[in-house]
Amino acid sequence: MPDEIPIAKPVAPVPTIQPAPPAGRKFPCPSCGARLDFDPTVRGLKCPYCGYLKEILREDSAEVAERDYIDYMEREEAHGKAIPGRSSETRCPGCGANVLLEDKMVTEKCPFCLTHLENKPEAVHTMIAPESVLPFTVDLRKAREAFDAWLSSLWFAPNELRKIATLGQLSGIYLPYWTYDAMTISFYSGQRGDNYTTTESYRDSNGATQTRTVTHTRWTSVTGDVQHFFDDVLICASKSLPADLITDLGLWPLNKREPFQPDFLSGFKTERYGIDLKEGYQNSKRVMEPIIIQLIQRDIGGDHQRIHTRRTNYVGVTFKHTLLPIWVANYRYHERLFQLLVNGRTGKVAGDRPWSWLKIARLVLLVIFAISLIAFLVMKAKG
């Protein structure tokens, strides 16, 4: 009888044990298994179902690093990398926004224009990862209250607007920004105008001699230079939202920024910058320019100033890539898309809105009728 062949017993796989999860990896709630999202009210990762909370500790000892602009531009390719936990992106066919997707998560609509996103995410191309973030402190409830208050304050809004607008879903988004620091030295040439007065005689319409004071300007040539340090010139790196709405969001407490931690992004969408570092730097120069002109005018002095030439050197330029929090609501009225933004730190609202021309026409007719009635009563009283 041939020897029996022994059958090997199945061996259970040995689990891989890691001392800590990879950076940016979001694990389910240890209590109920649901996904943890960042909650601005408690500054931590919170389970929306059972209330489990994992606090995000402050890195008080860490400082947000400044990066040398010239050095980085020379070695840009060597520094590019994705945000931990957001290794894929998809481009909106409607507004062109590049939305960074959380790993193993799928988004259906663009948060900026409500266009359905094609489920074809690609690996994140080389990008400059953020080193700082301004976390949300305005939660969804407060953002909704600000939204409702804004709607209630609108004059001549269509009656159905509130019903339509409240159907719009508020989405929390981290918007990309650049900040630039630079020491500027500006050399100029121009003229200084100083006013002086003289008294002259003239004849009036009756032929009588009169005197009057006449103001003249004496111009002298001037040259000089002014220096100024620009700190945190803020440039929005998104092309997905109207520039006027971005401006209307008001000032940001940039001194409250914190070193970047991927946990702050959990549960929120993040946009990849559409304005790159070089273009952002050129935009920052346009922001600095009117301030430099004011400094030159002040240095020239006098009552009037003329600037003929100016040349500015930018020294020690540094930059930071930072993410700032906003809530975005989109709603459509008569096939037109309207957007409303809420500052995720201050609660300030910026938005565009439709007008009810019927209500405006009624008011105009009412004013005309009131004026006509008053005129009729006045004429009747005189008669």
Strand proportion, as a percent range, falls in 25-35%
N-to-C series of helices and strands:
EEEEHHEEEEHHEEHEEHEEEH
Major β-sheet annotation: 12 strands, mixed
Assembly context of the chains:
single chain
Structural class based on helices, strands and sheet pairing: alpha+beta
The rough form would be described as flat
Number of domains: 3
The average pLDDT value, as a whole number, equals 78
Name the helicity range. 10-25%
Total helical segments:
7
Write the layout of secondary structure elements.
Layout: E1 37-39, E2 44-46, E3 53-55, E4 67-68, H1 69-74, H2 76-79, E5 88-91, E6 98-101, E7 122-123, E8 132-133, H3 140-152, H4 161-166, E9 170-203, E10 209-236, H5 243-248, E11 258-259, E12 269-271, H6 277-300, E13 304-333, E14 336-343, E15 349-351, H7 357-382
Parallel strand pairs: 8-13, 9-12
Antiparallel strand pairs: 1-2, 2-3, 4-13, 5-6, 5-7, 6-12, 8-11, 9-10, 9-13, 13-14, 14-15
Describe what you observe in this structure.
With 383 residues, this protein is an alpha+beta fold. The chain folds into 3 domains: 36 residues, Single Sheet (Ubiquitin Ligase Nedd4, Chain: W), CATH 2.20.70; 263 residues, no CATH class; 27 residues. Helices cover 22% and strands 34% of the residues. The chain contains 7 helices and 15 strands. The strands form 2 sheets. Strands 4, 5, 6, 7, 8, 9, 10, 11, 12, 13, 14 and 15 form a 12-stranded mixed sheet that branches. A hairpin with a 2-residue loop joins strand 13 and strand 14. The longest helix has 26 residues. It is flat and about 100 Å long. The N terminus is likely disordered.
